[in-house]
Amino acid sequence: RDSDGSADKNFSDVMELGRLYAVTAMGGKAIPLLAKAKKLEPQSPLPYKYMAIAQVDTSYRYREAVGEMDEYVRRAPDDVFGHNFIGYLYYQTGRYDDAVGALKRAVEMRTDNGYGWCLLARAYARMRRGLAPADPSRKTLERQAHNALENARAAASCSAGRVRRLEAWLRVQGTAR
Description:
single chain, mainly alpha, 73% helix
């Protein structure tokens, strides 16, 4: 064993153990392994993906996770998960314009992306919330939120429960139709 407790210096082994820790809510154990995986194979996108997951899992470090996921998306631009997750991270940090951009990319890549459509509706509604009632952008954002809701409804990958929660949330936000 190495001084950090990892099995050896083999990227595949270190990466797999870090991934498993990250996806089983053991982010505290994942972080040192994923940092080591980055050093062992700097060009791989995977350590960045799972580091972002581990950072959110361990202590809701969304801002730190954004940097990791930005790097992951740069290295793996065709992964829908990456765009969904960076959109989520932007949303969590109040960067709604950035969230919309990432989520639009995700739903363009996979139109049956129920998660992406639901979060996109929430991002539009959050952007609308900060505008004056007379601002014409409010209506545009409300329309965009409802269009995203309709796409979520139509997405086979989106559960009826998720759609109902989104509808209720939109009503609370004052964007009900």
